[in-house]
Each structure stands twice: as C-alpha cells, then as structure tokens.
Design goal:
mainly alpha, globular, 16 helices
Length: 449
C-alpha cells in the first residue's frame, strides 16, 4: 500500500522529481568535468524549460503567487546591467554577470528558486519514500565524484591534489555547494517527518549524511576548492545539530502543545548548545579515527597550504583588501564603478574579495541599498515563515526548515564578506532557494514514516 501511494501521484509530482534529477545530473557532470570547462548544458536547458512551463501553467490556473522580493532582485540586476554598460560598455560582460553558468547572478537566483519549487512540491505531496530516494541518489553521486577524483590524484606523495585542474576549481566547487545545500534540505525534511520512536531510521539518516559530508569534503580538497570545503563543513555542522534538535521528542511535544516558538526560545537555545557540543565531539572523534585508519595527511591538502602551513588564497585576499580597499571603496562611493580595480591599481583582476565592500566599490551605495533591501525581505519572509506555522506536524516541518534557512543565510553572508565578491554564485543560488519566488497554493500534506 505504501509503495502504491508513493507512485500514485499527480503528473506534476513526477515533473518535479524529473527536474531535480536533471539538475543533480547537470551539477554532478560539471563537477566531474573540473579543469575542462562546462558541460551538459542541454540538461540545464531542459530544467529551465520545464520549470518555466510549470510556473506559467500555474499562473494560468491561479495556483501560484509571486513574492515581491523578486522585483527588488530584478531592480538589482537592472542596476548592475546599467553600471556595466556605463563603466565598461561591454555587452559580453552583461551576459557574464547575469546569465553565464559561472557567475550569472540572474541564472543562479532562478536556479535556486526553481530547485526550491520542485523540492517544495516533493515535500508537499511526495512523502518520505521520495525524500529517501533523492537522498540515496545524492549519496551515489557523491560517491561517484569521490572515486572519480581519487583516480585522478597526482602520483606524487607530497600533496593531495588532482591532475588537470588547471585552476578551474571555483565553478565546480560552487556546484558542489549547491548539491550539498539541496542534500541538507532533503535530509532535514526527512528527519522532521520521521516518527519519534524510529531511532534506527534517524541513525541511518545521520550516518548517510555524515558519509556524504566526508565524501564531499575530501573531493573538494582534491580539486583545491577551499570555499567548497568551508561551506560544506559549516552547513553539515548546522544541519546535523538541527537534525538532533528536530528528532528530540521533548522539542516536538512542546511545539505541538504551543509551548515552544521558533526561533526565540531559551529552551530551544539551550538544546542547540547541547547538540552543538554533541555534533562537534562526534565529528572530531570520527574524523580523527578516519584519519588514523586511512593514514591520511591533512597537511598535504590545499587548506593547509600543501604542507607550508600558509593558506595562500586567504593571505592574497587580505593583501588585496589592505592595499586596495580604501581606494576602491572611496573612488565612486555613491554610484560605484565596475572598472574601479583597473582605475585604482592598474590591474582589473585586483577586485575586492569581500561581498559588501565589493558591492560598494563597484555598484556604490545605491547597489548596496538594493542588496540590503533584498536581504531584509528574504530574512523577514523566513522569520514570518517560522512564526506563522501552525502547531501541528506540517507546521513543525515548516518552522524547522525555516530555522535552518535562517542559520545558513547568516553563515553564507558572513563567509561572503570574508572571501568572495558580489558575483559569488552560491550566494545568489541560496537567495533564490531560501524563499521560493513562485510559491504554490497547493495545500501541504505531510506523511510520517
């Protein structure tokens, strides 16, 4: 009967599932193709065609709304386009920063919201079986990437690095983060649906998620993507802590009885601290055991400077900000200038690798105001999402996911200001993913298992 229900679905459910599989396949193939440029573009094209068609059909049937932060985002894209045309007079650069598959802000924002739309559909009607199936698919993809990268490692024992990367690690590294964000969303959606008395299922989910995190962390270091390593590790830690929190019978009971509110609750805070310690200790012990068993030398990885003890990617960013920050930010404070790096230093490549300062330098206070407005609207939507959820099983799922989105958004914004500029695709993907721009009016139906 359970299997029958899992496959007796509306056609839209299968379309949502098919879109996710297409997206997963596109991202994985591009990760595997590190060092050789982009690939599998038709898969991405089909994903966007199916997603756009689904949105248009929903609009025609009055089953889809639009969140207003979309128009604030489009205002930012319009301002970015205007500045490119004025400062650089380069149509190709407009394409590069809006729809290209490396740093296209518009493309990745829509990619995030279409992915979230499909996952919301699965969450609303697909049930536990489909969530488990997606988690298994992502686990298999992670293993595929891991073993493929392992076969491409340099024969030298001095460093842990792949052949043929050619410095092209940022794009596939960002795609790995996309996959892990969606994996974490699916993992937490599944944990929230598990019955409190099914501890075995929780243990299996946690073990699978920990294994995927390890596989992705090792793979990210194999191609030298420190940003992917940092983001995957942080998202894993947050997700594992929240999974333990959501599986806590007392937390669920208090929520359903209306005695616990997200996100402001001293009781919730105390449990978060407790489970953070549990996850930190478990992860440290498990990692130490794995290192000892495999005799893996962490000093050989890029995050430790391949044995030098100095992370060149961090030091170079700090150096650029120290030498160029004041000059670039003060060059055209109100309007900004996309060509500011060349004007102030003579080198167009010496842009500020810090999200907010980079926006101020290149898009001015006008650009920063639009981005701040967008971030406030999205954070507000997440907050309302948590607070307005009903005290029932479906409400617990929505409030729980909302808390994870809030923490993840906070971390990504923090990291973006440490290491990346305005065009970081992960930030724009998550801003689209955090709040579905085209929410469905389909009533949610939650099934436990």
């Amino acid at each position: 009967m359970i299997v029958y229900k899992a496959f007796n679905r509306d056609k839209a459910d299968y379309v949502a599932l098919g879109k996710l599989l297409l997206l997963f396949a596109y991202l994985v193939l591009n990760v595997l193709n590190v060092g050789e440029g982009g690939t599998a573009l038709p898969l991405l094209g089909i994903f966007f065609v199916l997603s756009s068609t689904a949105v248009l059909l929903s609009f025609s049937q009055c089953r889809t709304a639009v969140h207003w932060h979309l128009f604030v985002f489009l205002l930012f894209v319009a301002w970015l386009t205007y500045r490119i045309l004025v400062d650089l007079n380069d149509i190709a650069h407009v394409k590069k920063l809006t729809v290209a598959t490396t740093s296209g802000i518009l493309l990745f924002f829509l990619l995030g919201t279409f992915a979230r739309q499909a996952l919301d559909r699965i969450n609303a009607t697909g049930g536990v079986i489909w969530l488990r199936s997606l988690l298994v698919v992502l686990f298999l993809f992670s293993a595929w990437v891991f073993f493929s990268f392992n076969n491409r490692l340099l024969s030298s024992d001095e460093i842990f690095y792949m052949e043929g990367v050619n410095g092209d690690y940022q794009r596939p590294g960002n795609f790995m983060i996309f996959l892990f964000i969606m994996c974490s969303f699916i993992f937490l959606s599944l944990v929230c649906r598990l019955k409190a008395n099914k501890k075995k299922n929780l243990f299996v989910c946690l073990l699978a998620y920990f294994s995927m995190a390890i596989l992705n962390l090792v793979s990210s270091q194999a191609m030298g993507a420190n940003t992917a390593t940092a983001c995957i590790l942080a998202i894993y830690m947050m997700s594992a802590v929240l999974a333990l929190l959501y599986a806590d019978e007392d937390i669920r009971d208090r929520y359903w009885r209306g005695m616990l509110s997200f996100p402001f609750s001293m009781y919730l805070f105390k449990r978060l601290v407790r489970y953070s310690l549990v996850v930190a200790v478990f992860s440290a012990v498990a990692t130490f055991a794995l290192v000892q068993i495999t005799s893996f030398d962490l000093q050989k990885t890029r995050v430790f400077g391949f044995g030098s003890g100095v992370n060149s990617s961090i030091t170079s960013r700090v150096e650029i900000f120290r030498e160029e920050g004041k000059g670039q930010i003060g060059n055209a404070l109100f309007f900004g200038n996309l060509d500011v790096a060349r004007l102030t230093s003579g080198d167009p490549g010496r842009t500020l690798h810090s999200f907010v300062p980079n926006i101020i330098a290149e898009l001015g206070l006008i650009g920063l105001s639009i981005v701040a407005w967008l971030l406030i609207l999205i954070a507000q939507k997440i907050f309302v999402f948590m607070r307005s959820s009903a005290n029932e099983e479906t409400g617990f799922l929505l409030a729980s996911i909302g808390l994870w989105l809030f923490f993840t958004l906070g971390f990504l914004f923090f990291y973006a200001n440490l290491a990346v500029g305005k065009e970081w695709s992960v930030m724009w993907f998550f801003l689209g993913f955090a709040v579905n721009v085209f929410p469905s009016r389909l009533p949610a139906k939650t099934r436990s298992g």
